[in-house]
Amino acid sequence: MNANEINTLLYLYADGECSADEAKRVEAALESDPALKAELAELRQVSMFAADAFTSTTPEVDLSSVFGDVMARIDGESVEVAETAIDGVRVQREATEEAPGALAKFGAWLKSAFTFEAPMASAMVAAAVALVVGGAYLSQGGDEGNSNGITTPGTTTVAGETPRRPSEGEVPAAARNTAFVDNVEVAEGEVRIEINEDDPEQPMVLWHTVEGESANTGEQGL
Amino acid sequence: MFLRIDKWLVTLGAALLMSGTALAAGPTDGASAEAGIEVVAQEAAIQLDVTVIHATKKQRAADGKLDKLGRYLTKSFKKYKGFKQLDKTSEKLELGKGGSLTLPNGKELSFRYDGTKKGFIQLYLEVDGLKTKVRVKDGGTFFQAGRGYKKGMIVLAFDAQTSK
Fold first, then answer.
1. Total domains present in chain A
2. Do A203 and B128 touch (CB under 8 A)?
3. For the whole model, what pTM was predicted?
């Protein structure tokens, strides 16, 4: 019997599937070949492990929550990330992005304007700022009256109100008797300009009083 | 860095150009009207009515001659109870032309039409040491008052409107 035949019979012998005659021949070969004995022992060990794998019991796995988790995910995006029903398996929720609102868009445009990503937008912003500053400067009020009581041209003084210089051509909507003093000079005495802002239809009064004269204009016509 | 400075210059230049254009097209400050007789006339002549009124604190009968002025007088001069028309003149003034009127207190009133602008009539007045330039809305009225006369005061009412 050659070595190949012995090796073939050895597998059958290890599994107990040889005939009696074949078993005798293998046993005879085993007695004279220690290497063959070692191989037989190895074969028997492998067989033993395989048998254990088929016969041993596995721990029970709880799959009862898997179905519920999957359905919850399908039903709505607001489902929390579920705890893993099975070790190593993770349920992921896709992130959703909301469309940017109007405020966010304006903020992005403003950012592009100040970082010169959009040159025209930058120019518009700068022009708007310049117009506001320039317009505010030009529309500032006029001069105060001096200590002699002679008011600066164009200013009005009504019972302690702050003098205000109207711009040229300024016309309230329905004020028929609107008038302005552009300048005034007096050789003596005091000048006061009265405009009734509560009643624009009331004519302006240009007072010129000299101390000592009979006219008493302490509290002027208002 | 250099590129950003360059962009700043371009943007600043464009902004200044645009704002300068807008401001130049806008209304000008009133101080520009003080430069002499700023003739900006659109109207060749105006009608100027000057009414000389004696205001007293003593009550007296209403003067029918005052007409619509009576209502304005009582509101503008609340401390005065009596108003009497002493004189009245109505003159048609051409651009740059004026007139004069002798007041009851012996003082001289001078006036001149200096033009119209944006619906306002520009007048120059001079009376008893007072010199002034006034703008009044076309068809409007204003008063000059305060100088004493016979236990009262003189009130001058000016009505100005462009000639039609």
1. 4
2. no
3. 0.48
